[in-house]
């Protein structure tokens, strides 16, 4: 039985200048790369597959299997693309990881590229995080200077170039095929699948796209072995992961624990919900995962556990909202976000999110009716599963789940002729007596 | 709350002011960026960041320069430039000040902070103060939710903000007082930041801490209680950041 918290990815975040190569190497950095380069690439893939690592970007697809899908008999170059476009509302794990320990990611990039025999790897990082980009740029340069990136890496005969690529502000680019279009210098719009990126990805070549946390988990798996990794977590959700607590919680932040911890346990570690208030609703993994309530405090936060209660583990972005928050206001704002970020490629999402905002605005102002709720649900049903990519599906999650759990609160808005909540009460400075 | 999301569409966009600062050196850097990629067109996003670092916005001349270097049409480059929120058609001030108004930051105080700043600076969303110093914009989630309410200045983090600390911050920026991000470097200008995004490091990576209090919350608790992953930690007993 592992400890309650198991810092692996975050274990060196409190070290002096943890972002520098010298600090990273003091705690064994790049030892895993040496070990991997002495293995056959296929054995590296097998090790990651055996560990049970599943994608940490939200979908939970087995990472080793993704690598195995790369057709090695395909004569085209192979590419690794790291999805560092962290933009899902509530999600804030990859950014602090890259800020504190970019070399954990870079070492994982070199190992993963070797495993799939890629010659170039890209780290596609969202553009709005200047200091994280500086530290990534510096880490890649340090790794080049030390011979961990470049030609004949550590005498292995393996060559790799790594490019840090800054995006320009578009949530949709976190969708892996939209990210590929963006990385090719185009508007970030998703592609039809099949063909899957493993066969025809970047420049039409075999491509693996992995989340930052997935790739950053690889060095520890290689170093300590697949059994070490799978000794943490639950039956089908192995290993440790970063849980990000935010909102109305006493000590928000990053808590690295084995998969399967519950929100009750995490809240206990984080000092509980804001004093004087009760938990009202929360997202298990960002705004695209259906809302849960205090009924779900003991749900194991792994892929199966959260799925079983009708939501998704997603990015483990636990946004905590207490009883001072109006759920209609929260859902309207998320819906405005999806409308703004819809890429416009498909009709259900482009038009649907626009109409959802119109209706929710009316409801929030207390000018709606019972019928509007039916229209919202009908619209959501026509967007979910009928959109080109998961953005449209995600847009419906807060709406349908909030109506399921808080229908009375929607009704209260038009019964009272407006929002019954005081927007000041939910702020962090509510008790300080400040006002706008 | 819908007024948060309006854009200043009534202001005209200068097509060309005839004083483009794109030089042969800019074109040479564009070619350098293109050479980083197996296929040159991949360089378009960083090249547009470079245009903004030189011009203070995406200008028609900048679009034509990108098109020339990559063998694209101006329309193809414009299609890309208009898709992404970070590319600006109107001139941006020295300091781009963003306030997150996505749900979590909004309810934690982001909406009130944004309202206060609009009043204080006498600008609307995506508008620039008359002195050309500050462009104010509401932001979508910037991946710092454990520090809500969050603001960004030239894409550096400003954590746990209040209406008072927000007005102090913009006053300092306007007065020319040196401003440091609590999780980043001393704030540079927006154009300088855009140059880093184009892939030209500015040597400031070593400024600032490894992370803030929230970043380290779980790790500190694990250290206190002696919790580690199986096999222990090689860092538990070494020297720490303050």
From TrEMBL, chain A:
Keywords: 4Fe-4S, Flavoprotein, FMN, Iron, Iron-sulfur, Metal-binding, NAD, Quinone, Translocase. Residues 328-373 form the NADH-ubiquinone oxidoreductase 51kDa subunit iron-sulphur binding domain. Its EC number is 7.1.1.-. InterPro entries: ComplexI_51kDa_subunit, NADH-UbQ_OxRdtase_51kDa_CS, NADH-UbQ_OxRdtase_suF, Nuo51_FMN-bd, Nuo51_FMN-bd_sf, Nuop51_4Fe4S-bd, Nuop51_4Fe4S-bd_sf, Soluble_ligand-bd. Pfam families: Complex1_51K, NADH_4Fe-4S, SLBB. It is an enzyme of class 7 (translocase). The keyword Coiled coil does not apply. It catalyses: a quinone + NADH + 5 H(+)(in) = a quinol + NAD(+) + 4 H(+)(out). The keyword RNA-binding does not apply. Its cofactor is FMN; [4Fe-4S] cluster. SUPFAM superfamilies: Nqo1 FMN-binding domain-like, Nqo1 middle domain-like, Nqo1C-terminal domain-like. Belongs to the complex I 51 kDa subunit family. NDH-1 shuttles electrons from NADH, via FMN and iron-sulfur (Fe-S) centers, to quinones in the respiratory chain. PANTHER family: NADH DEHYDROGENASE [UBIQUINONE] FLAVOPROTEIN 1, MITOCHONDRIAL (PTHR11780:SF10), NADH-UBIQUINONE OXIDOREDUCTASE FLAVOPROTEIN 1 NDUFV1 (PTHR11780). This is NADH-quinone oxidoreductase subunit F. The lineage of its organism: Bacteria, Bacillati, Actinomycetota, Actinomycetes, Propionibacteriales.
From TrEMBL, chain B:
CDD domains: TRX_Fd_NuoE. Residues 231-242 have a biased composition (Polar residues). InterPro entries: NuoE-like (IPR002023), NuoE_dom (IPR042128), NuoE_N (IPR041921), Thioredoxin-like_sf (IPR036249). Gene3D superfamilies: Glutaredoxin (3.40.30.10), NADH-quinone oxidoreductase subunit E (1.10.10.1590). Its cofactor is [2Fe-2S] cluster. Pfam families: 2Fe-2S_thioredx. Keywords: 2Fe-2S, Iron, Iron-sulfur, Metal-binding. It comes from the Bacteria. Residues 222-242 are annotated as: Disordered. Belongs to the complex I 24 kDa subunit family. This is NADH dehydrogenase subunit E. It comes from Kribbella pratensis.
């Amino acid at each position: 039985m592992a400890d309650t918290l198991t810092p692996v990815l975050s274990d060196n975040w409190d070290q002096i200048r943890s972002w520098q190569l010298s600090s990273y190497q003091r705690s064994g950095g790049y030892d895993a790369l040496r070990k991997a380069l002495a293995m056959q690439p296929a054995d590296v893939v097998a090790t990651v597959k055996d560990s049970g690592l599943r994608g940490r970007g939200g979908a939970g697809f087995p990472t080793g299997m993704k690598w195995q899908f790369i057709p090695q008999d395909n004569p085209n170059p192979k590419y690794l693309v790291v999805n560092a476009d962290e933009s899902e509302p509530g999600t804030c794990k990859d950014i602090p990881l890259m800020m504190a320990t970019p070399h954990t990611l870079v070492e994982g990039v070199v190992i993963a590229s070797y495993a799939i025999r890629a010659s170039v790897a890209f780290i596609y990082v969202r553009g709005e995080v200047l200091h994280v980009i500086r530290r990534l740029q510096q880490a890649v340069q340090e790794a080049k200077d030390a011979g961990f990136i470049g030609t004949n890496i550590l005498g292995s005969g393996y060559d790799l170039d790594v490019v840090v690529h800054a995006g320009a502000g578009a949530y949709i680019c976190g969708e892996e095929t939209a990210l590929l279009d963006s990385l090719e210098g185009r508007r970030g719009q998703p592609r039809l699948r099949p063909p899957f990126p493993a066969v025809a990805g970047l420049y039409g070549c075999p491509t693996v796209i992995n989340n930052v946390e997935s790739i950053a988990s690889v060095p520890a798996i290689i170093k300590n072995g697949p059994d070490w990794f799978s000794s943490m977590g639950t039956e089908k959700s192995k290993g440790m992961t970063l849980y990000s607590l935010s909102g109305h919680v006493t000590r928000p932040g990053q808590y690295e624990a084995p998969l399967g911890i519950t929100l009750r346990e995490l809240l206990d570690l984080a000092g509980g919900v804001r004093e004087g208030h009760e938990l009202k609703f929360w997202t298990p993994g960002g705004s695209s995962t259906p809302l849960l309530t205090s009924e779900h405090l003991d749900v194991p936060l792994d892929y199966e556990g959260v799925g079983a209660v009708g939501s998704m583990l997603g990015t483990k972005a636990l946004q905590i909202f207490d009883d001072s928050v109006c759920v209609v206001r929260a859902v309207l704002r998320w819906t405005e976000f999806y409308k703004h970020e819809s890429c416009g490629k498909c009709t259900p999402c482009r038009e649907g999110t626009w109409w959802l905002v119109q209706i929710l605005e009316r409801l929030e102002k207390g000018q709606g009716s019972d019928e509007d709720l039916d229209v919202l649900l009908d619209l959501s049903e026509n967007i979910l599963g009928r959109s080109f990519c998961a953005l449209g599906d995600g847009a419906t999650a807060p709406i349908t789940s909030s109506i399921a759990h808080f229908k009375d609160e929607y009704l209260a808005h038009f019964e009272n002729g407006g929002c019954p909540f005081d927007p000041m009460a939910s702020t962090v400075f509510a008790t300080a007596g400040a006002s706008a | 709350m819908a007024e948060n999301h309006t854009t200043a569409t009534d202001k005209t966009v200068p097509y060309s002011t005839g004083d483009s600062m794109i030089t042969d050196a800019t074109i040479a850097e564009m070619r350098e960026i293109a050479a980083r990629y197996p296929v040159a067109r991949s360089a378009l996003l960083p090249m547009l960041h470079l245009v903004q670092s030189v011009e203070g916005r995406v200008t028609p001349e900048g679009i034509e320069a990108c098109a020339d270097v990559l063998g694209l049409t101006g329309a193809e480059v414009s299609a890309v430039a208009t898709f992404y929120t970070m590319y600006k058609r109107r001139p941006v001030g020295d300091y781009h000040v963003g306030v997150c108004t996505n749900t979590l930051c909004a309810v934690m105080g982001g909406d009130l902070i944004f309202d206060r700043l609009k009043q204080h600076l006498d600008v609307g969303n995506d508008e620039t103060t008359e002195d050309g110093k500050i462009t104010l914009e509401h932001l979508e989630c910037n991946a710092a939710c454990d520090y809500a309410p969050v603001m960004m200045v030239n894409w550096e983090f400003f954590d746990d903000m209040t209406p008072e600390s927000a007005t102090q911050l913009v006053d300092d920026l306007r007065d020319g007082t040196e401003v440091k991000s609590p999780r980043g470097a001393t704030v540079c200008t927006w154009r300088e930041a855009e140059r880093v995004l184009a892939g030209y490091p500015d040597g400031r990576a070593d400024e600032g801490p490894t992370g803030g209090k929230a970043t380290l919350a779980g790790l500190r608790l694990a250290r206190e209680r002696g919790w580690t992953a199986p096999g222990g930690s090689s860092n538990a007993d070494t020297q720490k950041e303050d």
